[in-house]
Amino acid sequence: MLYHGSNIEIDIIDLEKCRPHKDFGKGFYTTTIKEQSHRMALRVVKRYGGSACITAFSIEDGVFENANLKTLIFDSPNEQWAQFVLNNRNPKFSDMNSQEYNGDCKYDIVKGPIANDDINFIFNQFMVGLVPMEYLIKQMEFKKLNNQVSFHTKMSISLLKKIEVFR
């Protein structure tokens, strides 16, 4: 089961409404952790109003082995994951051919750790040159990171089936 936390129930996923420059690029973000989606819903409510709502989705087993989809999985935080997140968050990143970038939605689905607020501080230190990549990776080993599964194309969105809503 995948969960999406918001201030509204999600009936139709509209990729045009998704914000750019997120960890894995512009897309619809979910998690396998219900409590994490609830915390996200509360953050959205604080920013935009409304009330917390979690929409749960199912997806077929084996979706990451589907030959018709281009997927990317990060099992744990590593240098490739960190560079991918940094590139996607950077509005000035321009190498569309890079495999470490998804602003062009070259990946249908991406799964991996979420760069939460604890990690943001270390990322910012790296981006301004205060710490090297090795330090950033080492610090992530000590953080308890949640997960995210992001969907970036209409084809991948079509695989999600809404099954339940929690208010």
Would you mind describing this structure in some detail?
The chain has 167 residues and is of the alpha+beta class. Helix content is 29%, strand content 20%. It contains five helices and seven strands. The strands form two sheets. The chain has a four-stranded mixed beta sheet. Strands 1-3-7 form a three-stranded antiparallel beta sheet. Strand 4 (71-73), helix 2 (79-89) and strand 5 form a beta-alpha-beta unit.
Largest sheet, in brief, is: 4 strands, mixed
Averaged pLDDT: 93
Count of distinct strands: 7
User: What's the order of the H and E elements?
Assistant: EEHEEHEHHEHE
Tell me briefly what this model is.
The chain has 167 residues and is of the alpha+beta class. Helix content is 29%, strand content 20%. The protein has one domain.
What's the SSE blueprint?
Blueprint: E1 2-6, E2 28-30, H1 34-48, E3 53-58, E4 71-73, H2 79-89, E5 109-113, H3 117-127, H4 133-140, E6 147-151, H5 154-157, E7 161-166
Parallel strand pairs: 4-5
Antiparallel strand pairs: 1-3, 2-6, 3-7, 5-6
Helix pairs in contact: 3-4
Keywords:
167 residues, alpha+beta, four-stranded mixed beta sheet, three-stranded antiparallel beta sheet, 5 helices, 29% helix, 20% strand, globular
